[in-house]
Amino acid sequence: MTKLNRFLSSLLLVLLLGISNVAKAYDRSNNTTAVAPNKDAVLARQLQQDFSNHFEFHKVAVTVDDRVALLKGSVETYREKMEAEHLARKHHGIEGVRDFIAVQPIVPVSDQELHETIANRLRYDRIGYGIMFNNFEIGVKDGVVTITGDARTYPDKASALAIVEDTPGVRDVKDEINVLPLSQFDDELRVRTAMAIYRDPALQKYSLDPQAPIRIVIENGNVKLYGVVDSPMDKQIAEMRAREVPGVFSVENHLMVADEHTQRVASSTKAGDISTTHSP
């Protein structure tokens, strides 16, 4: 019986120690859970602090759910909206972003005013970088800007988009710009075609305008002319000079005469959808 008692006593002691250890482990687990900070809350505070360091984001509020940042509030330009989203995406620990930031300019801007502002800025963008070889068309509806057309290079496209995104009043941007393929043949053809057109005695007056009113888009030897000229004769001469350039396969003449252009702009304004059908 003595041996049995000693065995039972030892067994009871082991069981009691085991229960004690389990209880301690359970308590530690509960305490850890209680004091461990919520990761989403920490990320939200950090990201909100990042935004507070930028004055343009002082009206942006951040919450985080399962490492996905939810952005609300308002900014003054569409570019600021995109920059806020970019700032959130690059924050360590953030795995996704839902951007509900509203674009609210300080002064309300009508679609017509917005169109005129963007068109005027695009006309003179990239002067000195082959401006005459780009052609962009813009449409504005309820603050949403659609930009289409052809850019000779990716920097040309990026510059045009930056202008649109940074213009107060733009709520959203639809990018439909085509970047032309790299081609030494087309580049040489662009220079020869521009010289043929802008050096013609009847068309030299257009070479004095820094916005290059006659735009020359070339892809695989095919030429498209855009822009606004003073008369039907100027339109015809420009096409003739383009066709005479060695290496040109075809010419599409989309040039508009000034009076025709004015009428089309007035018509689109009345329709409520402000758009251009030529280079800005």
Secondary-structure blueprint of this entry?
Layout: H1 2-35, H2 39-52, E1 60-65, E2 68-75, H3 78-89, E3 96-99, E4 102-103, H4 111-123, E5 135-141, E6 144-151, H5 154-165, E7 172-179, H6 184-198, H7 204-207, E8 214-219, E9 222-229, H8 232-243, E10 250-253, E11 256-257, H9 258-271, E12 274-275
Parallel strand pairs: 2-3, 2-4, 6-7, 9-10, 9-11
Antiparallel strand pairs: 1-2, 5-6, 5-12, 8-9
Could you name the CATH topology of the largest domain? Histidine-containing Protein, Chain: A
Assigned CATH class of the largest domain? Alpha Beta
How is the biggest beta sheet arranged?
A: 4 strands, mixed
Distance between the termini: 107 Å
- The SSE order reads HHEEHEEHEEHEHHEEHEEHE
The fraction of residues assigned to DSSP E strands is 15-25%
For the residues shown, what is the average pLDDT? 85
The number of domains: 3
Q: Helix amount, in percent?
A: 40-55%
Q: In the CATH hierarchy, what is the architecture of the largest domain at level 2?
A: 2-Layer Sandwich
The counted number of beta strands is 12
What does the radius of gyration come to?
33 Å
Overall form = elongated
Low-confidence stretches: 32-36
Q: What is the structural class?
A: alpha/beta
Number of helices: 9
